[in-house]
Amino acid sequence: MSFKSNFLWGGATAANQCEGGFDADGRGLANVDVMPVGPERLAIMTGHHKMLDFEENYFYPAKQAIDMYHEYKKDIALFAEMGFKVYRLSIAWTRIFPNGDELEPNEKGLLFYENLFNECHKYGIEPLVTITHFDCPMYLIKKYNGWRNRKMVGFYERLCRVLFTRYKKQVKYWLTFNEINMLFHGSFMSSGLYFDPGENELAIKYQAAHHQLVASALATKIGHEINPDNQIGCMLAGGDYYPNTCNPEDVWAAIKSNHENYFFIDVQAKGEYPYYALQELKNNNIKLDIADGDVELLKANTVDFVSFSYYSSRVAAGEKNAAEKTDGNVFASVRNPYLEVTEWGWQIDPLGFRITINQIYDRYNKPLFVVENGLGAIDTPDKNGYVADDYRIDYLRSHIQAMKDAVNEDGVDIMGYTTWGCIDLVSAGTGEMKKRYGFIYVDRDNEGNGSLKRTKKKSFDWYKKVISSNGEDLT
Q1: By the 8 A CB rule, do 216 and 177 touch?
Q2: From CA 349, how far away is CA 92, in angstroms rounded?
Q3: Beta bridge partners of 9
Q4: Which residue of the set 19, 126, 280, 372 is catalytic?
Q5: In a domain, 363, yes or no
Q6: Looking at the whole model, is its pTM more than 0.70?
Q7: Cα-Cα-Cα-Cα dihedral of 18, 87, 457, 466, to 10°?
Q8: Is residue 3 part of a domain?
Q9: How far, in Å, CA of 366 to CA of 306, rounded?
Q10: Number of domains observed in the structure of the chain
Q11: What CATH number did the domain enclosing 156 receive?
Q12: What's the start-to-end Cα distance of the chain, in Å?
């Protein structure tokens, strides 16, 4: 057998992309709510177009999403039918603390997740909980300027204490921040940062990064104190950079790009700032505001495991070496002529998945958890709503095989695997519904039209077979 008997198979979602119910039961407004579909989305996401509330003439897909807030019991029953061992989901911060700086949490929000976790356990599904998946209360952005403010660490600490205490008997697998390295690329979406003209954006990003790294270490410390059985991990937007050619300038560009990608996880997994980040700060005349005790906190509270997303590999070229770029989204890359691409320009590279797995394991020597992998594609249902998504099956088959090779032939320790968007949901990058990842089709379009009816795709039964065979049957 390739995978250990307790390997955690499942799927992953994020609150802001599936729950909806944006103002239900006392929930407050969050950054992820005010990101509309359309050409402005990328500029808003990166902090270069300021949108702090709903505006006329825009459609905001997170308001309703796929309404899992009201449909979660049916959805979890479908996950159970596939045989999920684990379900990765995230907490909407503003369900627990609507503004973010309250002293007491919102009981209705806490009860929602308590009921959801109970529903998971009814079917023997372990929840894997991301504490913040691109969630930041809008009130904290307006009043405190998001994660550029040190006070955010205290607000996040209060959230963590409440979650670890309330769900002590229900949740043992936790992630502190989703794709924490996205702070450098999607600063508003990731951390509630927006930039005024003339500001030193790099300095602001690094200071916000320090605050999140301190908050993550604090969460790890608190989580272990409240329940020593808790397993707490970090989460990386993974995908190694290849050099475009063997030109040393391209090789150096790839090394530099990988450094930027791994910076956060180097701190979370090793407990200290890596040499290259310290030099980067020095080279850019950035002096971080590091409080007394931060260095010791980071060193003493490294994560138990490293989790990551993987959709595609990337390619880097030196500044002088012009090269065609992929469409991509915030991670646009040099085009790799050896790879096919998805309808959104993401390069399909199963061997790159194995390479990335090995690079991360070599770097940290901690158990790995693949918490996002999947194919975003346009699905066309037949008259009965059925989607014959063989292209998705092909993508997942080749990537699961690559993961199996990493375990079987390379000796990598992998805890589990959760496909991204196991049920169709709103795309974080584009805000679209037509960019679908799920095993379950949801009748909803980019403009919010549709019945929200759930229908199993062909991949539903295929993944059910994969899980029941513990990854042995990929046919």
Answers
A1: yes
A2: 32
A3: 417
A4: 372
A5: yes
A6: yes
A7: 160
A8: no
A9: 7
A10: 1
A11: 3.20.20.80
A12: 16
Give the tokens for residue 434: 């037509």
Type of residue numbered 289: D
In angstroms, the Cα distances linking 376 to 4, 35, 207, 347 are 29, 20, 33, 12
Burial class (CB in 10 A: 0-12, 13-18, 19+), 445: exposed
Q: What residue has token string 């690329």?
A: 185
Q: Which residue has the tokens 């005010």?
A: 34
Q: How many CB atoms lie within 10 A of CB 104?
A: 8
Q: Tell me whether residue 391 is in a domain.
A: yes
Give domain status of residue 474, yes or no. no
Q: For 206-267, where are the E strands, in sequence order?
A: 231-237, 241-243
**201 a catalytic residue:** no
Six token digits for residue 20: 């909806």
Beta-strand ranges (E) seen in 17-91 are 86-90
Q: Is 392 helix (H, G, I), strand (E, B) or coil?
A: helix
**How do the pLDDT tens digits run along the chain, 475 residues long?**
689 999 999 999 999 999 999 999 999 999 999 999 999 999 999 999 999 999 999 999 999 999 999 999 999 999 999 999 999 999 999 999 999 999 999 999 999 999 999 999 999 999 999 999 999 999 999 999 999 999 999 999 999 999 999 999 999 999 999 999 999 999 999 999 999 999 999 999 999 999 999 999 999 999 999 999 999 999 999 999 999 999 999 999 999 999 999 999 999 999 999 999 999 999 999 999 999 999 999 999 999 999 999 999 999 999 887 777 765 556 678 999 999 998 888 899 999 999 999 999 999 999 999 999 999 999 999 988 899 999 999 999 999 999 999 999 999 999 999 999 999 999 999 999 999 999 999 999 999 999 999 999 999 999 999 999 999 999 9
347/354 Cα distance (integer angstroms): 15
Phi, psi of 474 (to 5 degrees): -110, 10
Which residues make Cβ contacts (< 8 Å) with residue 377, sequence separation at least 6?
342, 343, 389, 391, 392, 435, 436, 437
Listed in sequence order, the residues at least 6 apart from 2 whose beta carbon sits closer than 8 Å to its beta carbon are: 404, 407, 408, 470, 471, 472
Please state, as a whole number, how many other Cβ atoms lie within 10 Å of the Cβ of residue 473: 11
Determine the Cα–Cα distance for residues 264 and 203; give it in Å rounded to an integer: 15
How are beta strands 8-12 and 414-420 bridged, if at all?
Answer: parallel
* Cα→Cα distances 262→56, 168, 250, 265, 360, Å: 39, 31, 18, 5, 9
Task: Quote the domain boundaries for residue 46.
Answer: 8-468
Catalytic, out of 119, 179, 260, 432: 179
Q: Give residue 61's Cα distance to chain centre.
A: 18
The structure tokens listed for 181 are 């390295």
Q: 372 an active-site residue?
A: yes
- Residue type present at position 199: E
* DSSP secondary structure string for all residues of 84-105: -SEEEEE--HHHHSSSS--SS-
Cβ(327)–Cβ(344) below 8 Å = yes
